[in-house]
Amino acid sequence: IMISVRLFCFIWHGLLLFHPVQTGNVLVLPGEFSHWHNMRVIVEELVERNHSVTVLVNTASTTVKYAKEKGFRFQFFSVSLEEHDLNVMFTEFMDIWVQYPNSSILETASRVLNIMDGFVTYHRVMCESMLKNKTVLEILKQSKFDVVLHDPFTPCGELLADMLDVPLIVALKLSFGFTLERICGQMPSTPSYVPTQPVNFSDRMNFLDRVQNFLQYAFHTLMVFTQMHEMKNIFSGIKEPTTLCDTFGKAEIWLIRSYWDWDYPRPFPPNFVFIGGHHCKPPKPLPKDMEDFVQSSGEDGIVVFSLGSIFKNLNLERRNTFASALGQIPQKVLWALSGEKPETLAPNTRIYDWIPQNDLLGHPKTKAFITHGGSNGIYEAIYHGVPVVGIPLFADQPQNILFMKNKGAAIMLDLFKMEAKDLVKALWTVINDPSYKKNMMAISELHHDQPTKPLDRAAFWIEFVMRNKGAKHLRVQAHNLTWYQYYCLDVAVFLLAVVGLIVFLMVKMCCFCIRKCCWRTRRKNKTE
Length: 528
Ligand SMILES: *[C@@H]1O[C@H](CO)[C@@H](O)[C@H](O)[C@H]1NC(C)=O
Ligand SMILES: *[C@@H]1O[C@H](CO)[C@@H](O)[C@H](O)[C@H]1NC(C)=O
Ligand SMILES: *[C@@H]1O[C@H](CO)[C@@H](O)[C@H](O)[C@H]1NC(C)=O
Ligand SMILES: *[C@@H]1O[C@H](CO)[C@@H](O)[C@H](O)[C@H]1NC(C)=O
Ligand SMILES: *[C@@H]1O[C@H](CO)[C@@H](O)[C@H](O)[C@H]1NC(C)=O
Prior knowledge:
It is built from 19 helices and 13 strands.
């Protein structure tokens, strides 16, 4: 009996071991630059969970295709973008702010619109190369994916999912009431208390702020609808003419890279999942020479300094201003700077082409973080509780920094007007005024006080969609309404008509009665 029980256990164990693990087949359409670094963390988590992951990447990619495949694989599609290289266009885009920092909003807007032409072409070429490449489409069809994970930075991913007939998950940063999630995702957004870009206010708006916010909503809506028109033209040769929201609106889940530790509260539909900070991790040990440098700072600690790729375009004078300011503080500085170096560098400052930012911010000696306010960096600062000196340039950066400033966890400087003494003073303040650290720790504690980790949440919902072949039960019916149905304008018109009719009838009736009375009295008078 003993033996048979053992045998049974053995077989049972074996059955458990060889029971097919529920794993899926994921197609990832990543964005470039920081978007890919962000998405990559999810890809690695999916690989860790034994899913098969394919990353679709174009041959002109500026970031993704240089990544080492670790457990996932690339599927390339060729695209030729001679004059619309993404790097070049982004440099031009950044130049709008870097070269003409003093222009008015109107001038800036007209320059942006000019460059937008280039982006529209990029968009079109990209979509056509992806959706018209029969070979690649066939390979993708054969792969029988369970889900498409799409960063809208890459154009037309939502259409690809539609063509492959695979459930779509959209991953993006909620940019403070920006348009895609509002118009295509049906996330309720009210201009009275949800600020949109670009703003110089929080969710507590006075009358003029609300006027500005309202107009920005209108402008964004207009942009999306003109873009939809553009899309219709692009796709008429590929697919049934369709609109942006037709396809985006089909997304099963919206993975939003923010959270209430770092966004203003607002309502959202049940298929919105907030995963802000999912890329942050406990720090790993630093490389030996870096660790030695950090340790040499002693009591004063270190300052981590990274402005992303902004410096590539910045003139020598600004670099020197930074270098001279950094030379005046007692902390050691680790400065991530690619391209031209400043002329003189104080001994407390070291320049690196690349720094392990998350590990440095998690280092106990780190006192402050100088950043341009990209969302990845801000979340790492929140995760590790490091106060911030923000030097934003464009896009969502000013808003990101403004939010931290309003919470008392950051000081904001102007990249072009800033002098060395301003930076010295700002650094001194965030390091020596304990309120900054305290406020940042408060945000950090909120961030860590969640029932599940953001990365687990992301993975769970991706797996959920694969298990259940979608998440249609979370989809609000607002998607199927026209705008006048959505605002109940048809109902209002109907009710007004009913009320109008009743009023009309009552007036008529009154008139009738009055006339009858008058007539009678007149007749009476006459007979008298
Ligand atoms: C993934 O597969 C490996 C080896 O087959 C196994 O050891 C591991 O437990 C699996 N992980 C998960 C999350 O299922
Ligand atoms: C599709 O992409 C593949 C992979 O990059 C490439 O070899 C092929 O030439 C492309 N086909 C067309 C029609 O562009
Ligand atoms: C912008 O204005 C500031 C003064 O407000 C001036 O110092 C700076 O040189 C100007 N920058 C450019 C590029 O014109
Ligand atoms: C926002 O507006 C206030 C007051 O109008 C001003 O003091 C502040 O400098 C502005 N901030 C930015 C980032 O423009
Ligand atoms: C809502 O729209 C979707 C796609 O546009 C469609 O598949 C679905 O049948 C519609 N549902 C209703 C109740 O009309």
